[in-house]
Every structure is written in C-alpha cells, then in structure tokens.
Amino acid sequence: KTTEGFFSSENGNRNSVPMISPDYPSHRGVRIGTIKSTYQGKALVQFEKPAALRDGLLCISNGESAGFSLSFIESGLSFARASSKDVINFPTSSFKTKVEAGTPLYQTSRHNSTLPLLNENIPIYKRRADITVRITNEEVIISSEIFSRPCVKTFPVKAEEAKTQGGTIDVLSNVFSSSDKSYFTLGTLIFKNESSYDTPFIPISALKRIRREYYAELDAIFEKHTPEIKETANKAIYLRNTDKDFCVLHPLSLPEQNIDLNALFKEHNDIVLNNISQIAYAKRYPEKNYYLGHFLYAKNRYAYDYFKREIPSLCGIVLEDEKNVPLFISRVCFRHHALGLSCKNCSRNNTYSITQNNRKYAVYCKNCITEVYEK
Hints:
By secondary structure, the protein is α+β, with helices and mostly antiparallel strands. Strands 5-4-8-1-2-7 form a 6-stranded antiparallel sheet, with no helix packed on it. The protein is flat, with a radius of gyration of 32 Å.
C-alpha cells in the first residue's frame, strides 16, 4: 500500500510540526528528562526515562549545545530511575548563559549499546604460491606456477658452505613468508640443494632481494591475466575533463520537481544515471550513451558488471568534483521547516548559506527539495 508517511501534512510536512531544527541539526537522541537547576559542574534533573553511568547525554540551551558522558549520580547508584530526581555531573562551563529551568535533557547513546570498533588492521588477503628453491654453486633458481603458467627466474648468486649445520630451509621459509605488498605469500616451500655444499649458505640480504624481485614477477603475471582489477577504475570519466554535453539526472524523481524523464531521454544522447529506477528508461532508449553517476554505486567490478548487463550501451562512470555533489538531499523544505517561513508567495527555489562547527555550507531549496553542499 502506498503511503505518504511522515511527508503528509498530518505527520510533519509543511503545515505541521517541523522535522528539522536550526538550533541543533545533528542527532539529539531521545528526551529523558528536564533540568531543574545547574550549579558548579552539576545539575538537578527530573528524569522521565532511565539513564545509567556512561550514557551519552546532550543539553541544548539558548542556541548553545554540549554533549557529555554521565559519570556521576549523587544517589550513589549506577543508574537513575524514570520519575526520579537526582543530581548528576553537568558541563556548566560549556554554556555562556545560564541553562534555564525546564530545559530538556537528551540521551544520545546508551552505555551498553555501543558496539566495539572494527579492527581496521586486518591483514590484506594474499594468494598462496607454492615455491621451489634450487641452490647451485653459482645460482639460485626460483619457480612456481600461477594461472597454469610456470614462473621461473634465475638469480646469479654464489653459495658458500654454512658455518653451522642445517637451518637452510628455515631461513628460506622466513624470508619468503614476508611478501610486503605483493598479492602473494608463501604456500609450500620445496628446497633442492644442487650445490657441492652439504649446507649451502646465501646471505640474507641477497635472499631478500631475490624475494622482492620474484614476488614482483608474480604480481606482474597476476595483473596481466586479471585486467578486471583495474577495469572499473579505467571506466571513470571526470566531468571537468570532457567536452561532452552530459545530461546528469537527479537522484530523486518526485512529483513536485516536474521532471519529464521521457523528454530528457529523447533530447540527450549522453545521459548520467543516478537512480536505479532510471534503468527502466534507459532500456526504452537503448540507442543512447549511458554513464553511472555518484548515486549509482559501481566502484567495484561486480556492481559495474551488473549495470553493464542491464544496460548494454553503458559507457563508463562519470565523476564530478566532490564539491558539486550534495552532502545530502531531503524532501523536507529548509526554508519552511528550519527557518519557519510561510509557503505563501514562495518562489520554491531559494539559496542560503549556513555555518556549523566553523564549516560553511550552501543550502539550495529547489522545488521544495533541500540540497546541502560544502562550500
């Protein structure tokens, strides 16, 4: 069933309760209580909902805001019950003017709902290569096989008799197991002593050089036979570097925009798609040249291959300067809901400048659709 949801006038649109507020545009959480009084780093709060130590709290007062962690409850408990009144820690120094009684207190996070951060130090996946090392008196020969193709490389290095017995295969294993940024790492190592020495010795510095050069050889073969690794990146076309007359479609297609997509597809030959629903139009006009924009994610070969199957005349990816891409798009009108201005006699197209956290943004209201760009 189709519904207007919170966009209808009864649930938050033009003539109802504002959905966004200019005094604090970020996440403010849920209201959990009311501040009764503040003094010297503390506040007396009438709680409407429970709160616990280490919860994230937020206070907004007279255009100022401060977030803080609940670290002190005067009752001595680790939590404050709903309908209770208690003294807690409070960042009074963060406000230039006194926080008035009746100011709401919000909870932005709970102490027991924060998931641990993902470990970003995950090692890069590497393919294992089974390597054979042959050592003669004058050479080190390294061989393996990838893509059913042998890779053999000979390095002129003189061997010597080791001063200690045994350990050659352990040294080779340690050296070849370290492959830095290569696509490969050591799988199974096979060592063949073809020298005249019982325990041949090759300097570690020489072995490391051999390892680097050999893995570079494997990487070159891998890249040669897997062009799809760079295929998607090569399809990127930057708008600022081309003279083509692109028709860049808007990522939204709403009634109030009065966009005639059929007319746009008929008029233009090079069209940038920014919404998956626009694929249906592309299929109606297969003779056109199509490109994927910022809002149709295709920066890996699997996503790109999907779109290519759907649109045989797909030519690539079109990227714009990041400052020409909106940070977000909202169907809520900034002029009406944030600034509280009447819709009467409005041109439906307005431009504003705002500053938040010392960063400047441009706000465009186009047919009541709000777009925000970084300046």
